Design the sequence.
C-alpha cells in the first residue's frame, strides 16, 4: 500500500493531465512500484529504469564517466544527469532521479554517510534538487525517500 503522500501526489499529477517517470539507483525501482499501486497509476505512470550499477548509468543513460569519477555515482551531479536523460528517454512531464547510499560499501564518507539520498526532480514548473540523510535500514531509507520525493513534487506543482 503506497503512503498517503504518494497517493495524493499521484492524484494531483493526474488532475493536471501529466505523467511521471523514474531513474532509480538507490531505490532499485521501489519509487516506480509505489507509484504503480496508486489509484491513478494507469493515468500517470510512464515508466522507470533501474540504474543501480555504474555500467547502466554510463552505457544506457549516458552519464559521462568523468562525472562519476569526479563526484561518485551517488552525487547530485550524477543524479541530475540521470533525471535529464530519463526525461528525454521517457518524454515525461515529471521525472524523478534518485541515487544514494542505503548500505555501506559505496562512496560513503564522513560528509556523505550511509542514509544520504540525492533527488533531482524535473517538473513543468521548475526543477528540484534535494539532498537528505535518513536513518534506518535500507527499506526504511528508500520509503522515506519515496515519501520525500512525493512531498517535494506536491509542493512544487501546487505553488
Sequence:
Amino acid at each position: 500500500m503506497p503512503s498517503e503522500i504518494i497517493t495524493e501526489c499521484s492524484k494531483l499529477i493526474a488532475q493536471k493531465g501529466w505523467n511521471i517517470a523514474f531513474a532509480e539507483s538507490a531505490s532499485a525501482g521501489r519509487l516506480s512500484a509505489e507509484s504503480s499501486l496508486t489509484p491513478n497509476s494507469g493515468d500517470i505512470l510512464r515508466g522507470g529504469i533501474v540504474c543501480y550499477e555504474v555500467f547502466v548509468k554510463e552505457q544506457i543513460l549516458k552519464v559521462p564517466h568523468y562525472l562519476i569519477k569526479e563526484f561518485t555515482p551517488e552525487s547530485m551531479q550524477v543524479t541530475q544527469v540521470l533525471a535529464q536523460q530519463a526525461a528525454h528517454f521517457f518524454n515525461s512531464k515529471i521525472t524523478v532521479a534518485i541515487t544514494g547510499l542505503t548500505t555501506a560499501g559505496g562512496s560513503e564518507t564522513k560528509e556523505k554517510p550511509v542514509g544520504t539520498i540525492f533527488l533531482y526532480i524535473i517538473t513543468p514548473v521548475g526543477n528540484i534538487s534535494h539532498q537528505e540523510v535518513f536513518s534506518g535500514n535500507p527499506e526504511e531509507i528508500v520509503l522515506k525517500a519515496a515519501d520525500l520525493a512525493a512531498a517535494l513534487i506536491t509542493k512544487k506543482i501546487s505553488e
